[in-house]
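Protein in question reproduced for absentees:

***
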Amino acid sequence: MANAVNTKGRPATFATKKAVVAALADVNTLSRFLKLQLVEAGYLAVQPIKSEGRGRPAHDYVLTGKAKGLLNLAKNWK
């Protein structure tokens, strides 16, 4: 994730921790692009799903310990 301060162009999607928590609350509705940004930041892990036959392999995105800790911390935010 890029630094959102003093940069030109579109602001970062996950510039604040509250934005990250909002995204992590329902990971299944995020686009693949946003999920990959969270993977790069260490909040999600990619697990391949074993499928039968040919085709593109499916992936499951799982919360990491860093993400679970942030979600638990966010419960106390007002």
Q: What stands out?
A: The CA atoms of residues 51 and 75 lie 37 Å apart. The chain is about 35% helix and 15% strand. The chain has a mean pLDDT of 79. Strands lie at 44-49, 58-63.
